[in-house]
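Worked example 3 (structure in, sequence out).
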């Protein structure tokens, strides 16, 4: 009986949000969102130990170099702080509120919204995460919005603990986001994440979900080789060890279907992410039911050169939902038409 219970136990963390807290319920109205630039590139460490490697990635003329501080590279779990800030700013932008690069929030709210415990150790870990985010430096020429950045900057420019209780526990935090992150927010270069992202235990699971959300999006599936996947994850493991780790996650997903929105399998040659068709299900079933062909995304790239087609896909779906339009008879053709009009209006990204 004990063995059966262990086998059936979900690999997800407990859903602490179900406990509810009516005093912070407004933070749950802000859908979790991540900036696409850091979802596409392995900026955050998936290691459980301090990662002090300098990383450099090149794609044609574009490059990105990430340099950690002596305390190590910011981790995938540290990213929760940025996701929380991005989500709050996007929620404000969507209601035409004035926003700023300086974000002030209660530590308890951030911990609760990202499904973390609120005990004393969690506040200490939050301090350490802020130090790693501030210490991790980036040099890149990747464009966010219409600004091309060549200088170095931190994932956050600075942070300040505004007030602490007599017991030393932080109460409020003030963060100054980097221009890079804030430009991405202002130009809405973000993607909505499933709230169960915060319930994923393993850093690699979170990274795999981010990559599926970025590269698979609303497509039926995305296939990628283990070698490319390892590079996108930023893993320093041997190829053999990386394969073992991925296959272990695949085995758990086969047993529990626990990865949000996408299943993950291995077909003997490549890792295959398949869309579960669950995105935006509660908000609008008929919008999430639209499935685009893989070839459509290549045509979209030709229709809107320089633009991220998955960003345009999100904009298109949001446009349909906000306008309360009926499902297009030919979704692929409709999406291509939207991309052409977008490019005619906005030009190259």
């Amino acid at each position: 009986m004990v063995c059966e219970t262990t086998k059936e136990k979900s690999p997800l963390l407990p859903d602490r949000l179900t406990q509810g807290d009516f005093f912070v319920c407004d933070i749950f109205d802000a859908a979790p969102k991540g900036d696409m630039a850091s979802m596409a590139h392995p900026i955050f460490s998936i290691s459980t130990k301090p990662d002090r490697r300098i990383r450099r990635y090149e794609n044609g003329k574009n490059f990105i170099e990430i340099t950690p501080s002596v305390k190590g590279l910011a981790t995938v779990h540290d990213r929760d702080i940025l996701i929380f800030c991005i989500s709050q700013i996007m929620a404000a932008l969507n209601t035409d509120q004035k926003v700023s690069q300086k974000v002030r929030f209660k530590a308890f709210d951030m911990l609760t919204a990202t499904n973390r415990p609120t005990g004393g150790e969690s506040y200490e870990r939050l301090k350490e995460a802020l130090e790693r985010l501030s210490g991790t430096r980036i040099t890149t020429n990747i464009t966010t919005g219409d600004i091309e950045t060549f200088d170095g900057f931190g994932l956050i420019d600075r942070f300040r603990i505004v007030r602490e209780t007599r017991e030393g526990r932080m109460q409020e935090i003030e963060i100054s986001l980097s221009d890079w992150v804030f430009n991405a927010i202002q130009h809405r270069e973000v993607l909505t994440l499933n709230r169960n992202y915060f319930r994923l235990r393993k850093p690699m699971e979170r990274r795999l979900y981010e990559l599926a959300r970025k590269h698979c999006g609303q497509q039926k599936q995305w296939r990628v080789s283990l070698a490319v996947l390892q590079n996108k994850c930023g893993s320093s493991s041997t190829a053999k060890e990386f394969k073992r780790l991925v296959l272990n996650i695949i085995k758990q997903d086969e047993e529990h279907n626990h990865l949000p929105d996408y299943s993950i399998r291995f077909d003997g040659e490549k890792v295959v992410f398949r869309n579960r068709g669950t995105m935006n299900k509660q908000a609008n079933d008929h919008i999430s039911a639209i499935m685009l062909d893989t070839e459509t995304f290549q045509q979209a790239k030709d229709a809107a050169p320089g633009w991220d087609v998955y960003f345009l896909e999100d904009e298109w779906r949001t446009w349909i939902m906000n306008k309360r339009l009926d499902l297009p008879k030919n979704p692929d053709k409709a999406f291509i038409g939207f991309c052409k009009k977008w490019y005619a209006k906005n030009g190259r990204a």
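Notes: Confidence is low (pLDDT under 50) at residues 1-7, 18-29. The chain has three domains: 21-192, 196-275, 285-346.
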